[in-house]
Amino acid sequence: MKIRVLGIRGLPATYSGLETIMSELAPRWVEAGHEVIVYCRKALFKERPQEWKGIKLVYLPSIEHKMFSTLSHSFLATLHASVAPSDVILTWNAGNGPFGWFFRIAGKPAVINVDGMEWLRPKWKGLGAIYFKWAAKMATAAFPVVITDADEMRRLYLEELGAETTYIAYGANIEPSEHPEVLEEYGLKSRDYYLIASRLVPDNNADLILEAFVASNSQKQLALAGGADYRGNKLENEFLDKLKRIANDNVKFLGHIDNSEHIKELHHHCFAYVHGHQFGGINPSILKALGFSNCILALNTPFNNEVLDSGRYGVLFEKNVPDLQAKIEHLESHPDEVEAFRNQAPERIRTHFNWERIAQQYLNVFEAVKKQ
Could you tell me how far CA 256 lies from the centroid of its own chain? Predict the structure, then answer.
């Protein structure tokens, strides 16, 4: 098949999330004998090779703005894909849902992965939230197949939008630690710190995590690996300032880390990874933590609960400081439990979040849509 992909920033991955997912799926599709074309946001790539790992890359412009960067690029990619030859088109992000009508009109087989419920995120208020919910509804009408990444997301789309969806999970790789000396660059010692590895935005609850850590009797450090779109973004700048006010001397702000090997080592050697993501579906970062044999402390949401199998593969905390504080203190006084969670984490990836199986599930959907 000739498969076109749009709605992401592009490849190779310049960010986490969807780009990371496609960096796993697309090479596997190429290896299986398919032709894959990925649309990239031109402004994000100084170097613009024509191919990466056998994937053909098409660079198109965008309006680099909080609200319009993704939509403007996806719109141009949709126009291009509507007239270019293909067997199936994969679109990411519910915000791009209305563009499915272009494919309908052009007679192009297309599917969309809606990637969560964007209208619930704090960064989208007012018209933004209204648009994203409308766009999600349009996605369910325009695309013959809508993919959701969790059983809970499938239930919510059926309940709130009256739409049946196809469940395909995200995945992760099981990777060993290879360069523990990386910790020295960040002033950290193995098993002597908790890790947050995410964008530092309000809906990931880093403020709650910091408050609980500071209130606890922990003598360990808390390392925050992550940044946000701080340039000109008042909300995110204010949130970073809030985090710095909460922090004590045991909190280290590492900033955004581009090196995936460094992120892997930070995961492998932390005492526990703290995951505060509240919205969207199953977040790739919690799966990555399992693949890196981590003990995970995760906010108790339906999606995190699904990943951790109701606490079998990690500790779930409620959205309040006392509960997380108590669970931090419990883990520190029960290191045997922490080690048990680490040892069994990869099992969850092997059985439920395996990239090979997920890549084939997408191909099965593509084949079915192509024949319609």
Answer: 15
> Locate tokens 């969670």: which residue?
341
DSSP string, 95-120: GGGGGHHHHHHHT--EEEE--S-GGG
Residue 284 near residue 291, CB atoms below 8 Å: no
- Reported as a single tens digit per residue, the pLDDT across 40-56 is 999 989 999 999 999 99
Q: What letter represents residue 116's amino acid?
A: G
Q: Are 130 and 296 in contact (CB under 8 A)?
A: no
Close Cβ partners of 209 (under 8 Å, ≥ 6 residues apart) = 196, 222, 274, 276, 324
Please say whether the beta carbons of 364 and 32 come within 8 A.
no
Q: How far apart are CA 204 and CA 92, in angstroms?
A: 21
Residue whose entry in the numeric block shows the structure tokens 């030859």:
85
Is pLDDT above 80 for 182?
A: yes
- DSSP secondary structure string, 277-325? --SSSS-HHHHHHHHTT--EEEE--HHHHHHTTTTTSSEEE-SSHHHHH
For residue 328, how many C-alpha atoms fall within 13 Å in the half-sphere facing its CB? 28
**Is the pTM for the entire model greater than 0.70?**
yes
Three-state secondary-structure class, residue 271: coil
Cβ proximity of 168 and 149 under 8 Å: yes
